[in-house]
Automatic annotation (TrEMBL):
Residues 77-131 form the Trichome birefringence-like N-terminal domain. It comes from the Eukaryota. It is found in: Membrane. It comes from Quercus rubra (Northern red oak). It holds the Pfam family PC-Esterase. Residues 132-418 form the Trichome birefringence-like C-terminal domain. This is Trichome birefringence-like N-terminal domain-containing protein. It is a single-pass membrane protein. InterPro entries: TBL (IPR029962), TBL_C (IPR026057), TBL_N (IPR025846). GO terms for molecular function: O-acetyltransferase activity. Belongs to the PC-esterase family. TBL subfamily.
Length: 423
């Protein structure tokens, strides 16, 4: 059935004495516009890139949006900034000195805790078909003027957050900046710019029994279904939002999901596959973003899984060893460690391809996989005294999950910078 034509349209039609053919054509165009209006909007939307190369989400969906907020240019269409190689750079690396940034947690200050080499600081990521724009701290701070930027996720996202603060803080006078922590929320304030850069601890994004920002070492992890608003209320009003979640889901092949409330005397808990649980979280995140973020004013990023290097046999090393004492990069361009679950990347590709909001995907997984040299290893603050057995075997307590700063995570922020201003 053809939709009714408005009275004003009818008058125009009569005045113009349109032929029956033109009248039918006009009605058809109006009908199609009403029926497929949302699809037409998508035609003019910015593409969400979910890469289909090895180690990247297997589905690829392109959605075109109007010009994304904060964009000042475009990356060459032929260039995938996440595909490339590491090149040694002693001229521009590192971006800052460890001793110059007081905001780095003691778990990431490798030089202070005795790491004997600095080689991990002198590598620059070089995409295959273009170059990354130079990180411009002045542009970043001016863009954040009067705004909020927030990183949400686990300790790896906190590392990226601290890296961003270290990249920017030198431009801010000492009495014009501060960092405070309020339970799960840490806020760096640049008073001169009326801007904040924040980190919110939510390792699953949804409510879980690991939500305490200090005491969260729980092996029997439980995630509550449909609970993203528990944390999401603290994200409202943010202008640039950077999510991550992966490591905490890797407890095995299944995850425990709470269907009721943590306050229930008898808890209704089911076990589902890690992939289904992760898919549930991704859908919840996208629903929250669609309801609470404005695509015309705000930007949302999602950082892919951060690899660990706990098994040296993955890169041809001796069995039983790990990232400890590793000072060189993995040179195999097809390397993919056993710790990175491809099925999770497939879930991301599947769910993001259906997003009605422009999510910018930061695919740091493959490029970080080459960097077995960049972990904190044993050069960090140890929260518990080491036993004689551990001291005798450093491999037993080496941290092959987190990254030294300055280091790899500064590159993550260079990629974030590139995608923010040159999507």
């Amino acid at each position: 059935m053809k939709p009714p034509i408005s009275s004003s349209s009818s008058v125009l039609i009569r005045k113009a004495r349109l032929s029956p053919f033109l009248f039918t054509l006009l009605a058809f165009i109006l009908f199609v516009a009403i029926l497929y209006g949302e699809d037409f909007m998508c035609i003019f939307s910015q593409q969400l890139q979910i890469y289909a190369d090895q180690g990247q989400p297997v589905s690829r969906t392109e959605k075109k949006w109007e010009k994304l907020p904060f964009a000042i240019g475009k990356t060459q269409e032929s260039c995938d900034v996440f595909s490339g190689s590491w090149v040694r750079d002693e001229l521009t690396r590192p971006h800052y000195q460890e001793s110059e940034c007081p905001y780095i947690q003691p778990q990431l200050t490798c030089q202070e805790h005795g790491r004997p080499d600095k080689e991990y600081q002198y590598w620059k990521w070089q995409p295959n078909d273009c170059s990354l724009p130079n990180f411009n701290a002045t542009l970043m701070l001016e863009t954040l003027r009067g705004k909020r930027m927030m990183f949400v996720g686990d300790s790896l996202n906190r590392g990226q957050y601290v890296s961003m603060v270290c990249l920017l803080h030198k431009l801010i006078p000492e009495d014009e900046k501060s960092m405070e922590t309020f339970d799960s929320l840490t806020v760096f304030t640049a008073k001169k710019y009326n801007a904040t850069i924040e980190f919110y601890w939510a390792p699953f994004l949804l409510e879980s029994n690991s939500d305490n920002a200090v005491v969260h070492r729980i092996s029997d992890r439980i995630v509550r279904k449909g609970s993203i608003n528990k944390h999401g209320r603290y994200w409202k009003g943010v202008d640039i939002l950077v999510f991550n979640t992966y490591l905490w889901w890797m407890t095995g092949l299944k995850m425990k999901i709470l269907l009721g409330s943590f306050d229930d005397e008898v808890k209704d808990i089911v076990e589902i596959s890690t992939e289904d649980a992760y898919r549930m979280a991704m859908k919840s995140m996208l629903r929250w973003v669609r309801k609470n973020m404005d695509p015309k004013k705000t930007r949302v990023f999602f950082t892919s899984m951060s690899p660990s290097h706990a098994k040296s046999i993955d890169w041809g090393g001796e069995p039983g060893l790990n990232c400890y004492n590793q000072t060189t990069l993995i040179e195999d361009p097809n390397y993919w460690g056993s710790d990175c679950r491809r099925s999770i990347m497939e879930v991301i590709g599947e769910v993001f391809s259906k997003s009605k909001f422009p999510i910018t995907f930061l695919n740091i997984t493959q490029l970080s996989s080459y960097r077995k040299d960049a972990h904190t290893q044993i050069y960090k603050k140890q929260w518990n005294p080491l036993t004689p057995e551990q001291i005798a075997n450093p491999f037993s307590y080496a941290d092959c999950v987190h990254w030294c700063l300055p280091g790899l995570q500064d590159t993550w922020n260079e990629l974030l910078f590139a995608k923010l201003f040159y999507p």
